[in-house]
């Protein structure tokens, strides 16, 4: 039998009577895991469900992994752990669905109802038709991947983060990009379009083909990553194959290429700003993933660039 005392790292209204003692009659310190402690704590305080809990050693803010046993973190019978309320949680799948739904709502509204937003009618140019199709297909692909492809090492995130994460897609990739791309500036009779390369079907088709290659390649790398992690696990393995032989994060590289095509085709400041901010965020994620791979797999991890082939 093992007894553990749980105290509050910070005061929480979900468990006002802490510290509390949890008993595990069928466990030893070698078999009792942090996940077991979370489940038992949630049984005592139902609103404090496991994904909302951050369990750490008393006096230490470091998160203890769910699979860690008490013995592995140096604890014995009667030890004390601290719990912190991470706030209301939401699944990563739901987060991404919310993020990508913004552009899928905003772009059709501005494209099909220009008189509402520009106080004039807009005869759409071929460029605008291409951009509209590319943006819609991109975010529909994102929704498909969120629902049927991606597998996440962390099941949830704080609900409050949804608003922060959605800003990039709803405002920059939604409102700002749509308002610029479907405006009279890019209309069929605009001087910015007529007689320029942006009115050349061959240029537009060429850009669309590069974009299509980038989108399909991005999907392929996501499927490769999905297949490395069996459903319901946190398994990590070294990815190989298309895209991964040169860089750690080819999915980010192909994402950048796809949006670069939109930027070149339109020349829109809004598109460039969306690309630059997105690239900055992906670069941070890529560096973190690259470090984690090297730390976890050591010399077994192949020598690769981080996100841009032959460059970085």
Structural class: alpha+beta
> Can you write the helix and strand succession as a string?
EEHEEEHHHEHHHH
- Show unreliable segments: none
What's the domain count? 2
How would you sum up the major sheet?
4 strands, mixed
Helix content range: 40-55%
Distance between the termini: 53 Å
Shape: elongated
Tally of helical segments: 8
Output the strand order for the largest sheet.
Answer: 2-1-4-3
**Rg, nearest Å:** 25 Å
Mean pLDDT: 91
Q: What is the tally of beta strands?
A: 6
How large a portion of the residues is in β-strands, by DSSP E? 5-15%
Main attributes of the structure:
312 residues; two-stranded antiparallel ribbon; TECR-like_N; Ubiquitin-like (UB roll); SRD5A/TECR; 2 domains; alpha+beta; 8 helices
Description:
The mean pLDDT is 91. This protein has 312 residues and is an alpha+beta fold. It has two domains: 2-87, Roll (Ubiquitin-like (UB roll)); 90-300, no CATH class. It is 50% helix and 9% strand. It contains eight helices and six strands; from the N terminus they run E-E-H-E-E-E-H-H-H-E-H-H-H-H. It has helices at 34-44, 92-112, 114-118, 126-148, 161-181, 201-228, 250-266, 269-297, and strands at 2-8, 20-24, 53-57, 80-85, 89-91, 156-158.
List the helices and strands and how they pair.
Elements: E1 2-8, E2 20-24, H1 34-44, E3 53-57, E4 80-85, E5 89-91, H2 92-112, H3 114-118, H4 126-148, E6 156-158, H5 161-181, H6 201-228, H7 250-266, H8 269-297
Parallel strand pairs: 1-4
Antiparallel strand pairs: 1-2, 3-4, 5-6
Helix pairs in contact: 2-4, 2-5, 4-6, 5-8, 6-7, 7-8
